[in-house]
Amino acid sequence: MNAREIRPGIFWVGVNDRTTDLFEGVWPLPHGVSYNAYLVIGERVALIDTVKAHFAEDLLRNISQVISLERLDYIVVNHMEPDHSGALPAVLRQAPSATVLATPQALPMLASFYGITERVKPVSDGERIDLGGKALAFHHIPFVHWPETMATYEETERVLFTCDAFGGFHALDGVLFDDEVEVWEYEDEILRYFSNIVGMHSRPVLRAIEKLKGLDIAVIAPSHGLVWRRDPVHILEMYSRWARMEALPEVTLVFGSMYGFTSRMAEAVARGVKKAGLKVKVLDAARTHVSFLIREAWKRKGLIIGAPTYDTGIFPPVEYFLRLLERKRLRDRVVGVFGSYGWKGGAVDKIMERVGPLGWEVVDTLGFHGAPSPDDLARAESLGEKVATRVREAASVAEAI
Ligand SMILES: Cc1cc2nc3c(=O)[nH]c(=O)nc-3n(C[C@H](O)[C@H](O)[C@H](O)COP(=O)(O)O)c2cc1C
Ligand SMILES: [Fe+2]
Ligand SMILES: [Fe+2]
Asked: How many domains does the chain have?
């Protein structure tokens, strides 16, 4: 994609990445991702963030479409993760007058990641830099996503560059702005990004929203995904809802099964949820990448987990899902657990050990031996009904508040 002016004197110069299979080496990218970088052109010129090293040439080409690289005075590094800082050494080599602006916490990272120790100026929280006709103000937002992270606000055009905050997966398909797409088509990938990348930092996200909402914002320009100019409040509200653990009054059922006993029970549980009048999304943990499982668990208030016992513990794909959910610090869920065994069992107890410290409300648990009997299937249906009923109650309480 070519450089594109997003406001007078402010240009998007980022790239689409459709070739990285796994973001951070873990998260699949079926629709790609973008690394957005921006040029702010006053009498002096600032580049806001760079891109992944692999795409340095594309970034340099985009910048050159707008200005000569020698004209760069500042490179603002909002965040040091290499998906944004990787091309920094390449830019610095071609921009002899540029100074790097970053938080003091970024300095040791600049030195160790890239050996950059000169032409760096730390900026404090609230500090401003006048570019002549444009002006930047820096707002530290630690842990959205790393401790050194900040957002940069351009005062004359009221554009807030937020880097990872308010970003999402999904490359920009010939578009840049929220008003050029059906936003709902991007929302699932924004939530998959939120839940897997910044979800564990939900409290810092809420603190950042609180801190930034005093600014007069015309455009939110993150470094992944859509630029929000029609409705910047929409992305703030989505992030705020997800960070507050708000969820749909529906149920996510994640299960694993080796030979079909647990999956038969999962069908009965799902029927029970539906009987109680709620929607249920059923996902096989072994056949669905965990990033999608985490997204679906983030989306709905009810979460039912089912697994056979495997080597005295939880069937591994379900265990991995639970470990990651714990890491991502998902809170406030209404939960049911079921599990099967061949001789002694263990899956249900081990799931409970993992679930206990998370503070979720466990409504029902159910262990069964071998092939589910008619009685087991009836209990499974009842487990689904109980979870659904409790989710419905919790939703009506939330609505009343
Ligand atoms: C590799 C493997 C390991 C197992 N380990 C245990 C175990 O440690 N304890 C136990 O009670 N059952 C164990 N089982 C038996 C299963 O938990 C049991 O057959 C269960 O009903 C399988 O459910 P499924 O049909 O949903 O896969 C194991 C089964 C397999 C294939
Ligand atoms: Fe990041
Ligand atoms: Fe990022």
From this structure: 2
